[in-house]
Amino acid sequence: MPMTEAPTTPPTSTPIGDPVEAIVRAAESALTVRRRYQFFVWTQSYLSRLIPHQLAVCGSYDRASRELLFDVFNSVSLDPALMDALGDARSLLMQHWQARWLEARGRPAVIETADLAFTSLAPVRDALQAAHFHTVLVHGVSRPQRPQEIESFFVFASQDGPTLAALSSRLELLIPHIHGAWQRVQAVERDVGLPGAPQAPVVRAAGVTLREREILGWLREGKSNQQIAEELGISALTVKNHVQKILRKLGAANRAQAVAQAMSLQLLDRPATPPPRPRLLP
């Protein structure tokens, strides 16, 4: 299947107070999403305009394993233990959030992270609150007439919890498009490995240097070249050159694609251990 262009950022002229046009554009652009990096770009542009978030957890039912498989898209750094819990369908955290959604009878559910009262959930609750995620918004899609059989499940978290909590009606309108786009990504990426299917370029992590991984981490947090330069004590031009090299190495057209590729290669999850210093001879 030929690759389609990733959706572009919506025009800033769309009034945020009147989201009707933005919802229509988000629905139309969702139809172009075929790959994981395109989905990430779509969530960071069209969807984030309507449902502002820094964390999206997306799950789809896998017939082979007979359970939901989750992917985590985050634009801020998160505790590794929290990342593990978010990506594990069998974790108590994800099971609890799914149960809360089912209790809401399939409607969007606003959940306070402070309500994670189980002792075993204390570490992930503390990690969520340390990231300033005090509220999450969850929604999904179940099989017709079988509400307990979840086809897809989504969690959105924002550091502006009150604003997110007020957007459940928008999520209700958008969930068919989010579900459709994510299901399409799963189907296309399964088919990529079949004989005769066009293969995506192979991207290898080996060529990405320690400094480039460090910069990718700042890109994930949305920092500009100047802000990254100030963090690293180098010039903005040097950062720009690093970013261009990162884009080439990861086969990405823009920063969002590069971050999505880095996440799929787990470049941002591995400890950035500097190379050992040479030993001085006596």
TrEMBL record:
Domain of life: Bacteria
Gene3D superfamilies the record matches: Winged helix-like DNA-binding domain superfamily/Winged helix DNA-binding domain (1.10.10.10)
Pfam families: GerE
SUPFAM superfamilies per the UniProt record, alphabetical: C-terminal effector domain of the bipartite response regulators (SSF46894)
Keyword Transmembrane helix: no
HTH luxR-type domain span: 201-266
Sorted UniProt keywords: DNA-binding, Transcription, Transcription regulation
Keyword DNA-binding (UniProt): yes
Protein name, UniProt field: Helix-turn-helix transcriptional regulator
